[in-house]
Amino acid sequence: MIRCGQAVARPEDTCSWAPLTGVDVLPTPSTLDELAASDERIGERRDTPASTIARLNRMRYQEGRHVSPIIGLGNVDVWGFVDSDTDEARTFRTYLGYWNALDDLIVETYGDAPIARIHRALQGDRSFQRLAIRRFSGDVATLRARLVNSWAHEQQLYVIDHDNPDLLRVVNHGAPVPAYYSVAQCLCAWSVVRTNTEPNGHRAVLRGIAQQVNASPGRYPPPWNLRCTGVEGERRYDGFRTGPQPCSNLSIDAPPLDRVAQCLHTTRRRTLERSLDEAKRRERRQRARRGERSRIDADLLATTVFDFLLRARTRSSYGDPGMYYMGQLGDADVVRFARSVRRVTAATAFLLLALITQWAPEVVADAASHFISRDRSRITEEMLVPRLVQLGMATPPTRARRAS
């Protein structure tokens, strides 16, 4: 069945976007001639009630007129009230909460403009300092391409300013995609610097960074060193100062660390379920073997913030789009989502750029100069130049920066 206004429509009806007003603007047609006349009048009106629209479409069906149905465009927006109690709204609020938890933790730890304090945290780690001993001698062209690709993806998060919630509603749907690819390209660049090889596929990218975080957690300050290592039985975490407390997916008042832990837990749970389904398909079994779930959970590498970024990208690309076009209700939440995605991406990209610069400063400087000099949007003055200034590779721009 298709919901039509406040009434239930049969399949031959069309779902009208006009709210029910209790008053029919057009008389109910009874003949094909009257139906044609009604068609002409509807073309001139945008406030035709859903009840009239439905009757017109039923007549088409009964008379055998297989033409395009009428869509009523109402002047009154009632869907915000209807959509507020839907799965789509709850799903959007869940993902908003996860992005906001990461953003809140970054701001709580490093401030509103976090790159300076992130850099200081890195400089206090000996493993970070030792990176400068070596110099990159690998594939310069590949490293340069990955860096530029990362910046080009991240630029897309800055196209719409945060004072325009109407347009942010549109771009928020796709925002996790460039956010993930910006970070993934940085991770590929970091792999090229360390091993002179690129990971092959998303899972290889995430596997590589999980191994790095486990081996050298000091190079990855919070939230990037926070890990969920088990979901079967008792929840298990690494990197948290104190044991996080369970909280609701919809919580916005719980401490940021607890909300980040919940994000990592649900992300690992999804990875576990996917791996379990793959095992059943591989063995052509309807049910998993006894103990298979626990065994897979134990074999999985630690789940990190980077795994959530891929989850959000996949949800944006392949999930139910209603999460965005129905679930984004208040302007404040729309702006919070955009701001959190942008800041989490920017902070993560800076962390990785700082690591890469320790080994390959000349390549970073060359790639940045090439990219910034060709940026007619001037977004890089807001996005990239401050990072280079912090790393001692550029001076602040003299011309006015782009409004944010």
Gyration radius, to the nearest Å? 26 Å
State the helix count. Answer: 18
What's the story with the biggest beta sheet? Answer: 2 strands, antiparallel
Distance between the termini: 45 Å
Question: What would the average pLDDT be, to the nearest integer?
Answer: 83
Order of helices and strands: EEHHHHHHHHHHEEHHHHHHHH
Structural class: mainly alpha
The outline comes out as globular
Sequence stretches where pLDDT stays below 50 over 5 or more residues = 1-32, 38-47
The total tally of domains equals 3
Number of β-strand runs? 4
Helix content: 55-70%
Oligomeric nature of the chains: single chain
Adjacency order of strands in the biggest sheet:
1-2
- How much of the sequence is in beta strands? under 5%
Q: What features would you highlight for this structure?
A:
404 residues, mainly alpha, 3 domains, two-stranded antiparallel ribbon, 18 helices, 4 strands, globular, disordered N terminus
